[in-house]
Protein backbone atom coordinates (compact mmCIF):
# COMPACT_ATOMS: atom_id res chain seq x y z
CA UNK A 1 0.00 0.00 0.00
CA UNK A 2 1.35 3.41 -0.99
CA UNK A 3 1.33 6.20 1.58
CA UNK A 4 2.41 9.21 -0.44
CA UNK A 5 0.82 12.53 -1.27
CA UNK A 6 -2.44 12.04 -3.22
CA UNK A 7 -1.40 14.23 -6.18
CA UNK A 8 -4.48 13.47 -8.25
CA UNK A 9 -6.82 14.70 -5.50
CA UNK A 10 -4.71 17.85 -4.92
CA UNK A 11 -4.65 18.63 -8.66
CA UNK A 12 -8.42 18.20 -9.01
CA UNK A 13 -9.05 20.45 -5.96
CA UNK A 14 -6.72 23.13 -7.34
CA UNK A 15 -8.46 23.14 -10.73
CA UNK A 16 -11.89 23.36 -9.08
CA UNK A 17 -10.75 26.23 -6.84
CA UNK A 18 -9.31 28.22 -9.76
CA UNK A 19 -12.41 27.80 -11.90
CA UNK A 20 -14.58 28.73 -8.93
CA UNK A 21 -12.63 31.96 -8.33
CA UNK A 22 -12.78 32.84 -12.03
CA UNK A 23 -16.55 32.41 -12.02
CA UNK A 24 -16.81 34.45 -8.83
CA UNK A 25 -14.76 37.28 -10.38
CA UNK A 26 -17.00 37.38 -13.44
CA UNK A 27 -20.10 37.44 -11.24
CA UNK A 28 -18.70 40.14 -8.92
CA UNK A 29 -18.56 42.75 -11.70
CA UNK A 30 -22.34 43.07 -11.60
CA UNK A 31 -22.52 43.42 -7.81
CA UNK A 32 -23.40 46.90 -6.55
CA UNK A 33 -21.78 48.24 -3.40
CA UNK A 34 -23.97 49.25 -0.45
CA UNK A 35 -21.57 52.20 0.06
CA UNK A 36 -22.41 53.57 -3.39
CA UNK A 37 -18.79 53.48 -4.61
CA UNK A 38 -16.31 50.83 -5.69
CA UNK A 39 -14.33 49.07 -2.98
CA UNK A 40 -11.06 50.76 -3.93
CA UNK A 41 -12.56 54.29 -3.89
CA UNK A 42 -12.16 56.31 -0.67
CA UNK A 43 -15.30 57.22 1.27
CA UNK A 44 -15.21 60.43 3.26
CA UNK A 45 -17.30 60.58 6.42
CA UNK A 46 -18.24 63.53 8.56
CA UNK A 47 -16.06 64.01 11.63
CA UNK A 48 -17.45 62.64 14.90
CA UNK A 49 -18.79 65.28 17.26
CA UNK A 50 -16.53 65.55 20.31
CA UNK A 51 -17.53 66.58 23.83
CA UNK A 52 -16.95 70.23 24.64
CA UNK A 53 -14.87 71.21 27.66
CA UNK A 54 -16.95 74.27 28.51
CA UNK A 55 -20.40 74.30 30.01
CA UNK A 56 -23.41 74.89 27.80
CA UNK A 57 -26.39 76.87 29.10
CA UNK A 58 -29.57 74.92 29.77
CA UNK A 59 -32.35 75.35 27.23
CA UNK A 60 -35.37 74.89 29.50
CA UNK A 61 -36.22 74.96 33.17
CA UNK A 62 -35.40 71.74 35.04
CA UNK A 63 -33.18 70.47 32.20
CA UNK A 64 -30.56 68.13 33.68
CA UNK A 65 -27.08 69.62 33.24
CA UNK A 66 -25.09 68.27 30.32
CA UNK A 67 -21.78 66.53 31.03
CA UNK A 68 -18.80 68.48 29.57
CA UNK A 69 -16.53 65.41 29.29
CA UNK A 70 -16.55 61.88 27.85
CA UNK A 71 -18.39 59.25 29.87
CA UNK A 72 -18.07 56.13 27.71
CA UNK A 73 -15.41 54.51 29.91
CA UNK A 74 -17.21 55.24 33.20
CA UNK A 75 -18.61 52.22 35.01
CA UNK A 76 -22.16 52.72 36.26
CA UNK A 77 -23.94 49.56 37.35
CA UNK A 78 -25.75 48.19 40.41
CA UNK A 79 -22.60 48.16 42.56
CA UNK A 80 -20.35 50.92 41.14
CA UNK A 81 -20.98 54.49 40.01
CA UNK A 82 -17.74 56.15 38.88
CA UNK A 83 -19.47 59.52 38.47
CA UNK A 84 -19.56 59.74 42.26
CA UNK A 85 -15.77 59.63 42.56
CA UNK A 86 -15.81 63.30 41.55
CA UNK A 87 -19.38 64.54 41.94
CA UNK A 88 -20.47 63.11 45.33
CA UNK A 89 -20.59 65.85 47.98
CA UNK A 90 -17.74 64.15 49.88
CA UNK A 91 -15.35 64.39 46.88
CA UNK A 92 -16.50 67.34 44.80
CA UNK A 93 -14.51 69.96 46.71
CA UNK A 94 -11.10 68.37 46.30
CA UNK A 95 -11.83 67.28 42.70
CA UNK A 96 -13.14 70.79 41.79
CA UNK A 97 -16.24 69.20 40.27
CA UNK A 98 -19.86 70.33 40.54
CA UNK A 99 -21.68 68.72 43.46
CA UNK A 100 -24.84 66.75 42.90
CA UNK A 101 -28.08 68.52 43.69
CA UNK A 102 -29.54 67.72 47.10
CA UNK A 103 -32.48 66.12 45.29
CA UNK A 104 -30.10 63.25 44.43
CA UNK A 105 -29.81 62.49 48.16
CA UNK A 106 -33.55 62.26 48.86
CA UNK A 107 -35.53 59.03 48.75
CA UNK A 108 -39.06 58.66 47.37
CA UNK A 109 -40.59 59.87 50.61
CA UNK A 110 -38.39 62.99 50.62
CA UNK A 111 -36.12 61.87 53.49
CA UNK A 112 -32.54 63.15 53.15
CA UNK A 113 -29.90 60.41 52.92
CA UNK A 114 -26.10 60.45 53.36
CA UNK A 115 -25.66 58.62 50.07
CA UNK A 116 -27.14 58.98 46.60
CA UNK A 117 -30.68 57.64 46.46
CA UNK A 118 -31.29 54.50 44.43
CA UNK A 119 -33.72 56.42 42.23
CA UNK A 120 -30.86 58.76 41.19
CA UNK A 121 -28.08 56.18 40.89
CA UNK A 122 -27.95 55.80 37.08
CA UNK A 123 -26.70 59.24 36.02
CA UNK A 124 -26.94 58.65 32.28
CA UNK A 125 -30.72 58.29 32.49
CA UNK A 126 -30.86 62.09 32.62
CA UNK A 127 -27.36 63.45 32.00
CA UNK A 128 -25.66 63.09 28.63
CA UNK A 129 -22.33 64.33 27.27
CA UNK A 130 -22.70 67.65 25.49
CA UNK A 131 -21.53 67.93 21.91
CA UNK A 132 -21.86 70.57 19.24
CA UNK A 133 -23.65 68.38 16.72
CA UNK A 134 -26.35 68.92 14.16
CA UNK A 135 -29.77 67.57 15.23
CA UNK A 136 -30.49 64.07 13.96
CA UNK A 137 -33.94 65.15 12.81
CA UNK A 138 -35.26 68.58 11.95
CA UNK A 139 -37.34 70.19 14.66
CA UNK A 140 -38.73 73.55 15.68
CA UNK A 141 -37.45 73.56 19.27
CA UNK A 142 -36.84 77.01 20.72
CA UNK A 143 -35.19 77.51 24.10
CA UNK A 144 -37.26 78.81 26.97
CA UNK A 145 -37.34 82.61 27.16
CA UNK A 146 -36.91 82.51 30.95
CA UNK A 147 -33.98 80.44 32.11
UniProtKB/TrEMBL annotation:
Q: Where is the signal peptide?
A: 1-28
Entry keyword annotation includes Iron: yes
Q: Which UniProt keywords apply?
A: Electron transport, Heme, Iron, Metal-binding, Periplasm, Signal, Transport
- Pfam families given in the database record: NapB
Q: Where in the cell is it found?
A: Periplasm
Q: Which residues cross the membrane?
A: none
Broad class of the protein's primary localization: periplasm
Note the InterPro entries from the entry: Multihaem_cyt_sf, NapB
What Gene3D superfamilies does this protein map onto?
Flavocytochrome C3, Chain A
Q: Which residues form a coiled coil?
A: none
Task: Describe the subunit structure.
Answer: Component of the periplasmic nitrate reductase NapAB complex composed of NapA and NapB.
Family statement: Belongs to the NapB family.
- What is its biological role? Electron transfer subunit of the periplasmic nitrate reductase complex NapAB. Receives electrons from the membrane-anchored tetraheme c-type NapC protein and transfers these to NapA subunit, thus allowing electron flow between membrane and periplasm. Essential for periplasmic nitrate reduction with nitrate as the terminal electron acceptor.
State what protein this is by name: Periplasmic nitrate reductase, electron transfer subunit
Lineage, broadest ranks: Bacteria, Pseudomonadati, Pseudomonadota, Alphaproteobacteria, Hyphomicrobiales
Task: Give the gene symbol.
Answer: napB
Amino acid sequence: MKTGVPWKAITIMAVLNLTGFAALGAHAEGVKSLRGVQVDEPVFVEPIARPQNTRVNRQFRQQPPLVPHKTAAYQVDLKVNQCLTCHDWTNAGEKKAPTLSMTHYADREGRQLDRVAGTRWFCTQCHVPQVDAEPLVQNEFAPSSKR
